[in-house]
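lol ok so funny story. i was supposed to be doing the assay writeup but got distracted and ended up predicting the structure for this chain instead. priorities right. anyway since i did it might as well share w the group, maybe its usefull for someone
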Amino acid sequence: MENNQRSRAGLGPRPATPRRPLSLSRSAILEHLRAQPEPVTQAALVTITGLHGNTVREHLDALVRSGLARRVRAEPNGRGRPAWLYDAISEESTSEYAGLAAALAASIARTSRHPGEDAAAAGEAWGHELARDRAGAAPDPAAARGAVLDLLEDLGFDPHQDAEDPSRVRLARCPLLAAAHRHPEVVCGVHLGLVRGALEEYGADPAGSDLVPFAAPGACLLVVPPLDEAP
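and the output, tada:
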């Protein structure tokens, strides 16, 4: 069904390999997660792999951003904040997530008086959270743009910045393509809000940013206007 929708929109079938190949170390971390009978802590993975704690944390963060692993708090046990627990996400879980996102988009479209605005507001909150979890403030607006493109890459959008006009970014994939065809105002509103929220969290002005759905065969166009290069 999804490929039929892509065909009607002139997009062609979805690529068979949507994610970038994982490095050997990151693949090994993912395999260790899959091999565990229950979620494990970062400290346990450090013991299992023999890697430095910072290295393990970096790989885990990337796996979570890519949708290959999930992170939840352990149950409280005494004083102090509970540890994070990690486990792998199966392909079935990923499909269930996409179905849930589609259902939420349909609900917003059906019940909200201003679905585009509500979707953008939700996306902005999400963008702030994702950027905050990754690195915090960028050193300057230009670096903020680069950080947002890295975030979009990890989320599966496959961004390609125009060499002649850096403000134009081609998004070759949509992680929620079927839902975007059914409810573009909601899904694309969330994605644009995500970009704006992340830019703002990284210290750049999001004013003027825009997202044009299906602007070209097989891609949407993200516009991030020229940023002041000065800190």
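The chain has nine helices and six strands. Residues 91-111 form the longest helix (21 residues).
back to the writeup now i swear
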